[in-house]
Amino acid sequence: MSGHGPSVAIACQGGGSHSAFTAGALQRLLPAVDTEYDLVGLSGTSGGALCAVRAWYGLLSDGPDHAGELLEDVWCDVAATTPPSFLLNESLVWHKRLQNRMLPAADISPYATPGAVGHDWYLSLLDRHIAFEEFDSLTDEAPPHVTIGTVNVNSGVFETFTDDAITPKAVLASAAFPLLYEAVELNGHWHWDGLFSQNPPIREFLTSDRPKPDEIWVIQIEPQTRDDRPTSLAEITDRRQELSGNLSLNQELFFVRKVNDWVEKGYLPDDFKHVEIRRLQLDKTLTAASKRDRDPRFIEDLMETGRAEADAFLDRLPE
């Protein structure tokens, strides 16, 4: 990276298909960081993990401009463009919409329909876009470093994977939403979606022995605030899921603010410093059901929104 300005770490919150917004935002942020800042870390969970790992791999293998093109490629591949995938996508989205309205729509365990929307599809997607066998050599070039989050179903402990410890199964585990994917076995334990853990991992930017950032840029998918009062069952369900999705994010940011407070009071060693937190947020009213939506038009609209919000975010940065 350039080292022309403050060091930055980018944290990508997960949110299913809404993470296409993150891909669009990274397309603008990565070239800007390369010329004006020093990128020391990326992190992500669920769809944010897919974006973070793809961006990291693209940066170290091809550079920031091409990394943006590769993010475009992977999300075009995620989109449901064939008739079978389109029909499956529509059925999943409408199933969730009916559930949110408390209408009869029974869930089916992913273990009853193995492979339908599960591991094989996601692992094939990763294989087409990320050469994990190159990670050993790429880590010699780091920083930046990349970290993704999962939760250990058996122990209830959050687990993260960094750089060459990241495997296709680890990225799959970070995205393994329990009602759609079977749990993923890693190191003799079963893992689920990182949305239940650190969403996304942030404290690792400060607690590892790697270079600590001057700033953390959070790409936030879930709305932090709402002006209206949820009254319908669908609105209540959506807002509950938004609050749940932000719970771990706010806990991670609380840790950073607490460290900043200790730094100000002189409680910590000199290698700790004040870290500025900046948020880039998805400012659209979306439903929880649309997190399953892989309609190509929806994906492209989210990516374009991400690009526009990132441009505005960069314009607001201090000179």
TrEMBL record:
SUPFAM superfamilies: FabD/lysophospholipase-like (SSF52151). GO terms for biological process: lipid metabolic process. InterPro entries: Acyl_Trfase/lysoPLipase, PNPLA_dom. The keyword DNA-binding does not apply. Residues 10-206 form the PNPLA domain. The keyword Membrane does not apply. Keywords: Lipid metabolism. This is Patatin. It comes from Haloarcula rubripromontorii.
